[in-house]
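User: Hi! I have a protein structure encoded as tokens and I'd like to know what sequence might fold into it. I'm fairly new to this, so please keep things simple.
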């Protein structure tokens, strides 16, 4: 199908964006979230319910400009896990002192154990999606071929693949260019976008097919 006017300009813009994304990935790679990078972590039992905003302020004061992530690790919100790029003895002392003042605990810097966490490889992030993707792809291809057998099956499959690949490539390019940290949440959102596009595409095919029969 020949593209004209705005569609042609839109496609050109998407292609240029993808090229820019490829260049950024080639030079810098994807930026990944702290959880996927090599980092250090500490886990502390406070003994009483904590407010994450308060813990984040304590961490900000201790770590300065370092990236960190704080979350509760108990259903009663009385234990916390802090992940940060690296932790010095001075920073542990600050964390212990601030928590003692805020919650009446008796932590000491030397008593806080630091755990080292290695970086997560990209293939390890993608691996859980491979098998479900293959199964889903086989089922979808079979459905499209059987359901729309009176239409050009190769064209139907090609259009579906091109639509999804182009959109996912654009999203990946935006992520790489804007340096949004890549995470499991981002990957799940990309999967949802692909599913939504496929549903819309099949819906349009159903309308065309109903007009043919």
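Assistant: Happy to help. Inverse folding works backwards from shape to sequence: for each of the 213 positions I chose a residue that suits the local structure. Here it is:
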């Amino acid at each position: 199908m020949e593209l004209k006017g705005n569609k042609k300009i839109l496609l050109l813009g998407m292609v240029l964006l993808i090229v820019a994304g490829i260049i950024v990935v080639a030079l810098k790679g994807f930026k990944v979230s702290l959880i996927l990078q090599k980092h250090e972590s500490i886990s502390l039992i406070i003994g009483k319910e904590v407010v994450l905003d308060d813990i984040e302020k304590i961490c900000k004061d201790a770590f300065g400009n370092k990236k960190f992530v704080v979350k509760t690790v108990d259903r009663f919100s009385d234990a916390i896990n802090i992940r940060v790029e690296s932790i010095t003895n001075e920073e542990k002392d600050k964390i212990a002192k601030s928590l003692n003042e805020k919650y009446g605990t008796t932590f000491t810097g030397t008593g806080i154990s630091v755990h080292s966490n290695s970086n997560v490889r990209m293939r390890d992030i993608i691996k859980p999606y491979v098998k479900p993707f293959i199964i889903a792809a086989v089922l979808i291809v079979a459905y499209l071929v059987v359901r729309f057998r009176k239409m050009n099956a190769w064209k139907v499959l090609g259009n579906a693949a091109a639509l999804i690949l182009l959109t996912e490539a654009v999203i990946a390019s935006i992520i790489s260019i804007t340096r949004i940290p890549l995470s499991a949440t981002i990957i799940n959102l990309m999967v949802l976008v692909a599913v939504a596009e496929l549903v819309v595409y099949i819906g349009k095919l159903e309308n065309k097919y109903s007009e043919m029969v």
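A useful reference point when you look it over: The two ends are 23 Å apart (CA to CA). Feel free to ask if any position seems puzzling.
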